[in-house]
Design brief:
Mean pLDDT: 93
Largest sheet: 9 strands, mixed
Structural class: alpha+beta
Radius of gyration: 16 Å
Low-confidence stretches: none
Function: May be involved in the intracellular transport of sterols or other lipids. May bind cholesterol or other sterols.
Shape: globular
Keywords: Lipid transport, Lipid-binding, Transport
GO molecular function: cholesterol binding; cholesterol transfer activity
Oligomer: single chain
Number of strands: 11
Number of domains: 1
Distance between the termini: 20 Å
CATH superfamily: START domain
Order of helices and strands: EEHHEEEEEEEEEH
Pfam family, one: START
Protein name: STAR5 protein
Helix content: 10-25%
């Protein structure tokens, strides 16, 4: 798929901030339906990096505290992870939809056994309508994740770009299935 992945050193932690940008051949509403951060949502079905997603606390219509778990990766070299984030969902007047998140500690979600606690620094996805192209969406994503544990930074650096490209490819397949 046509996705651009770039990165630079993060100002938040000792890793990188990754930027993915691509055009998804679907309406912004269909793209949003596949990526929106809701319990029981579609993302656990198509995103190979999301095993489970649960809402720990609903703060408002737009803000919630969520726990995301990931499966092991890289032939089990990377153990399953869990992330606890405060998540903001917003829709702008131009139709752009945003999901933004950052790590948070929450008393109802202490670290769980069999998971390494990872930390998402400010990150998010923007579903941006393309004027005059109702069946195409610009998806801009930022990932700034400390996977935690004792992974060498070289392993993390080799994992993220391919993972982001896979995210866009799998999302494109998911929106096609949604419309079928």
């Amino acid at each position: 798929s046509e996705v651009s992945v770039s990165w630079r050193p993060s100002t938040e932690f000792a890793g990188n901030v990754y930027r993915g940008e691509g055009i998804v051949p679907a309406s912004p509403q269909d793209v949003w339906e596949c990526i929106k951060p809701v319990a029981g949502g579609r993302r656990t079905k198509w995103d190979q990096n999301v095993k489970d997603f649960e809402v720990i606390e609903t703060v408002s219509d737009a803000v919630s505290v969520c726990r995301t778990t990931t499966p092991s990766a890289f032939m089990r070299i990377i153990s399953p992870r869990e992330f606890v984030d405060v998540v903001l969902v917003k829709q702008y007047e131009d139709g752009t939809m945003l999901s933004a998140a950052t790590n948070v500690e929450h008393p109802l979600c202490p670290p769980q056994p069999n998971f390494v606690r990872g930390f998402n620094y400010p990150c998010g996805c923007f579903c941006i309508p393309l004027p005059g192209e109702p069946d195409r969406t610009q998806l801009l994503s930022f990932f700034q994740t400390d996977l935690g544990g004792y992974l060498p930074q070289t392993v993390v650096d080799s994992f993220f770009p391919a993972s982001i490209a896979g995210f866009y490819s799998n999302l494109t397949k998911a929106v096609k299935e949604l419309r079928a």
